[in-house]
Give the backbone structure.
Amino acid sequence: MPLSLIPSPSLRWSSFPPHAPYPIPPSITRFAISVAPQKSLELLIAQAAPPSSQLPVLFLHGGFGGAFVWVEWMTFLQQHGYTCYAISLRGHGESWNPGFWRMTWLTGLADLAKDVRCAWDEVLRRENGRLPVLVGHSSGGGLAQYVLSEGLIRVEALVLCGAVPGFGAPGPTSLLFPTIPSSKDRAVAALDPDWESMLWPLGMMLPFVSFQRTLQNVAGAGKRGTHVCIMAGGDDKLVDVKVSEKLATLFRKALEGLKEEKKVDVYENPARDADERIINKSCASISHGVRLVILEEAPHHFQNDVHWDVGAKQLLAFIYQLP
């Protein structure tokens, strides 16, 4: 065939093809937080009906996730009178997408922290300044510690679920090359983004927070009740129970340090410290102002596991005891 008849390839940049947003339950609404022209962050809202005076809850997802991973827990808490919010960080869910190279190699902790701040601002606007309970999973739990340590936000209480610890990631391969556990709901896994920020986990390989500064931005720390809760899956292969136990220990030491420096007035309640709350196959122990919850046989994505309700009930128990 003559060369003149062979069609020449035509290469051009193209935008992401339009797609229909993933479905959400009728009880949850999707709101777009505008951050720049043609750029917005997805915020899922489960409004309690009727509106209540209970503390709001703000959820942060982990790597290869989105606001959608919290739908079951949001719906559960909503049914118990709590208004819940879940943010999709840039490049996740229905939030704006920076593109492969920018997202993978130019987006780090500080960038994602700005998204958390935007979500926090929106929650405070809707809640008339009332501070939320912050819940973070996996790398989102590490991000939660980071934004508090940096003083970017202030919350009433902190819940860390299978969280990357502020003293440094448990191992590079599990975070840089994550795999979806077989227990994770496949319908949820299908919504995961095609690529992820590599600077996010890299920024958490070494110690990246001050536990005392983190606690100083948890408004309830040291007051009546327990305001820090760490949840761990007994079968978590990415962040195992020993890592979560060490994280709880460091938070307890940090709280004691703040007490000695008279930066907080720790409310002493030996009876409460000795309390244990057993729900199905899980157990919560409380010591020195920090609650540690072990979900037996639960994997890393326990909020999307078949027994998601066990963790949801422990979360409700924790929030319920807040003053």
In short: Residues 47 and 83 are 5 Å apart (CA to CA). Confidence is low (pLDDT under 50) at residues 175-184, 270-275.
